[in-house]
From TrEMBL:
CDD domains with a match to the protein in the record: ALDH_GABALDH-PuuC (cd07112)
Protein name: Aldehyde dehydrogenase
Coiled coil location: none
Taxonomic classification: Bacteria, Pseudomonadati, Pseudomonadota, Alphaproteobacteria, Hyphomicrobiales
Top-level taxon of the source organism: Bacteria
Active site positions: E264
Length: 494
């Protein structure tokens, strides 16, 4: 990836966007449009259609038709694999173009966006393509006079609703297994970052995915999103986003057709550093990245740091040094370590969280100010707040920004108590040189992921999902296929 290539792509004019329904770009039923505002300079890049219930209805009916026709849903798994592999290849071929488009939309630093968005999405699609002709049904261990078979069938029409931080990566975690299993899909992208998912649907078509199998309806959550959640002909809804919207979706399911709802929600993940950490420098560096990459707009961000008292000063020294070196800047410059905050509203929320933490008694050690105001974009210096207690909002509430809450502890049990003092349970980390302590902590911390001596980077081979109010869905790995298939029993008298 060269700066010159990025510079060429960043100025490309983005035409006004339509919906993608039934295999083609389609006008929305109404004329309402939403501005796409650049988080880099505040300018309007283009507009997207503000789709509504009528548009969702059309997309769901095209998806249903495609499903019933069976060209995809009943295709041999090896055939689906062929198309999905081509799809992955096309995403890779267009990776830089897609990454730059996405950064212009949501502000993630390009180095991270390139890997985490198109390349990760391509890898995910390929993983499920490769898996789908290797997953077998079952023969039940019955008595000899019957045959019990367990088939796995696609569900039908799957709705996908994702957030703006990594729309492609998270979208692919749902679209990949859903398509591989034979379902049709209707995606409602986040209103703050819709462009790359629209592009993804075009590439899927180009790869040979039959018309109507993958549809994208842009629009607001409260209208297009809710229409999808309430639709009587949607069989499942795969969601990543906030807890408040997750709750709403469960209600929508209860009020409509009891569609299954898979929820991946927020987190307030603890990063616990014991005094026997093998390499303090490395732990500080990875911890800084674990909270500040993509400006902390990462569901698994290690937003609560717990450091054992014996090394507290040394560790914090290292952490402050590495954080001071992180360059916040234009996300399309390769020299920037941290890009823009996705929206002005989110920036305000971050700044308010810092101010409130200070009011409640936390000590600001670094950052927390808005910078580059003259650019018109949304930029903020990563903030580190110490002496944060479980009574403070910053210990319990997700900010979803570059704001780190720090505290110290003496004993292991105390660390466990502090770590678990939150309604969430998404990710966590433990830094220690002791194998037994590492295993004991993996058991004790209530979270869907416990990293040991690292933070982040768990690949597609392992599941991702939360405990408690971080949700109960599981993206990634072969387990994700369970969310998009039904088990059917055949009981045959012999
Ligand atoms: P959000 O919940 O506001 O929006 C997520 C999506 O839901 C968007 O597409 C939005 O349009 C849609 N939506 C909003 N209201 C809706 C409604 N009433 N009905 C249907 N759809 C609706 O979240 P966000 O601000 O986009 O993203 C940030 C949140 O996402 C954070 O809480 C973060 O932790 C979480 N997140 C979780 C994971 C994970 O894997 N667990 C990953 C990334 C982000």
């Amino acid at each position: 990836m060269q700066q010159a290539q990025i510079d060429r792509l960043r100025s490309a004019v983005i035409p006004a966007q339509q919906l993608f329904v039934g295999g083609r770009s389609t006008q929305a039923s109404g004329n309402a449009r939403l501005d796409v505002v650049s988080p880099i300079d505040g300018r309007v890049l283009t507009t997207i259609a503000d789709g509504d219930a009528t548009d969702i209805d059309l997309a769901v009916s095209r998806a249903r038709q495609a499903f019933e026709q069976g060209t995809w849903s009943r295709a041999a798994p090896a055939q689906r694999k062929k198309v999905l592999l081509k799809f992955a290849e096309l995403i890779e071929q267009h990776a830089l173009e897609i990454a730059v488009l996405g950064v212009r939309d949501n502000g993630t630093e390009i180095g991270m966006a390139y890997k985490a968005e198109p390349l990760s999405a391509a890898g995910t699609i390929r993983y499920y393509a490769e898996a789908v002709d290797k997953v077998y049904g079952e023969i039940a261990p019955t008595s000899g006079d019957v045959l019990g078979l367990v088939h796995r069938e696609p569900l039908g029409v799957v709705g996908v609703i994702v957030p703006w931080n990594f729309p492609l990566m998270i979208g692919a975690w749902k679209i990949g297994p859903a398509l591989a299993a034979g379902n049709s899909v209707v995606v409602k992208p986040p209103e703050l970052a819709s462009l790359t998912l629209l592009r993804l649907a075009e590439l899927a078509s180009e790869a040979g995915l039959p018309d109507g199998v993958l549809n994208v309806v842009t629009g607001r959550g409260a209208s297009a999103g809710e229409a999808l959640a309430l639709h009587m002909d949607v069989d499942a809804l795969a969601f990543t986003g906030s807890g408040a919207v997750g709750r709403r979706l469960l209600e929508c399911s209860a009020r409509s057709n009891l569609k299954r709802v898979h929820l991946e929600l927020g987190g307030k993940s603890p990063n616990i550093v014991f005094a026997d950490v093998p390499d303090i420098k490395q732990a500080a560096k990875v911890s800084a990245n674990g909270i500040f990459r993509n400006s902390g707009q990462v569901c698994v961000a290690g937003s609560r740091l717990l450091v054992q008292s014996a090394i507290y000063e040394r560790f914090m020294d290292e952490l402050l040094q590495v954080t001071a070196k992180l360059r916040v800047g234009d996300p399309l410059e390769l020299t920037s370590d941290i890009g823009a905050i996705s929206s002005h509203a989110q920036l305000r929320k971050n700044l308010d969280a810092v101010a409130r933490a200070e009011e409640q008694g936390a000590t600001r050690l670094a950052g927390g100010e808005q910078i580059r105001i003259e650019s018109g974009g949304n930029f903020m210096v990563p903030a580190i707040l110490a002496d944060v207690t479980p009574a403070m909002d910053l210990w319990r509430e997700e900010v979803f920004g570059p704001v780190l809450a720090v505290t110290r502890f003496e004993r292991q049990e105390e660390a466990v108590g502090l770590a678990n003092a939150t309604p969430y349970g998404l990710a966590s980390a433990v830094w220690t040189g002791s194998l037994s302590r590492a295993h004991r902590m993996v058991r004790a911390v209530r979270a869907g992921v416990v990293h040991v001596n690292t933070y982040g980077g768990a690949d597609i081979t392992v599941p991702l999902g939360g405990f408690r109010q971080s949700g109960f869905g599981r993206d990634k790995s072969l387990h994700a296929l369970d969310a998009y298939t039904d088990l059917k029993t055949a009981w045959i008298a012999l």
